[in-house]
Amino acid sequence: DVKVTQSSRYLVKRTGEKVFLECVQDMDHENMFWYRQDPGLGLRLIYFSYDVKMKEKGDIPEGYSVSREKKERFSLILESASTNQTSMYLCASSWGQGITDTQYFGPGTRLTVL
Amino acid sequence: GIQVEQSPPDLILQEGANSTLRCNFSDSVNNLQWFHQNPWGQLINLFYIPSGTKQNGRLSATTVATERYSLLYISSSQTTDSGVYFCAVPSSNTGKLIFGQGTTLQVKP
Q1: Residues B47, B55: contact at Cβ < 8 Å?
Q2: Which of B3, B35, B43, B98 would best serve as a mutation to test chain A binding (most A beta carbons within 10 A)?
Q3: How far, in Å, are A6, A13, A27, A83, A99 from residue A3 at the CA level?
Q4: Is A46 in a helix, a strand, or coil?
Q5: Backbone angles phi, psi at B79, to 5 degrees
Q6: How does pLDDT run along chain A (114 residues), one tens digit per residue?
């Protein structure tokens, strides 16, 4: 079974802090994704990566950056957390050349920025 | 860009009832995925269904690509079916997955 893990289920940070969210997949997937989920807005793509050291902006990249130094790990970075970044963050991965192949999701990190 | 609309937004069922969830999309697509998010936030892919019908236990899905909609059927619902159901299609110009707003299902015992 595909396993996607995220470093924390719940996280509380203060405004201005630097925040790292880690995602690891164990299936040698090419593609990895970061989404945020907010009530009434569904899932929105922040960034994705189709290879090591490669990244592409999604629909809402502002205020975020990412890092993919190893194939299995994709990190989301909030350089200076703000209250409007309080949200549920979901990581996903998929196999293959197409970024719209079946995606497998991690359990999510619920981030609160005070 | 492509628009994805799901209906109904909310649904409450008694255990054992059947239900149909709908996903409409505004442009032709070459694939469509259904996901279930359980009450703890975990998203599980249910179907990858660009066209036709697929079944998995009590769940089945049908996509009619020419008419730009997909249906998810849940038969003999159980409390564990509760959660949010999303459909997702690729954007025609970016190729990224676009998610609908979801249908929140509550199955009461």
Answers
A1: no
A2: B43
A3: 10, 27, 7, 30, 18
A4: strand
A5: -60, -30
A6: 668 999 999 999 999 999 999 999 998 998 999 999 998 888 999 999 988 989 999 989 999 999 999 999 999 999 999 999 999 999 999 886 665 678 889 999 999 999
User: Among partner residues B42, B95, B102, which is closest to A105 by beta-carbon distance?
Assistant: B42
- Tokens standing for residue B47: 């179907």
Give the CA distances from residue B48 to residues A101, B5, B10, in Å, rounded to whole numbers and listed in that order.
8, 18, 23
Q: Which residue of A has its CA nearest to B48?
A: A102
B70, B49 Cβ separation under 8 angstroms: yes
Task: Please list every residue in chain B whose beta carbon sits closer than 8 Å to the beta carbon of residue A100.
Answer: 31, 90, 95-97
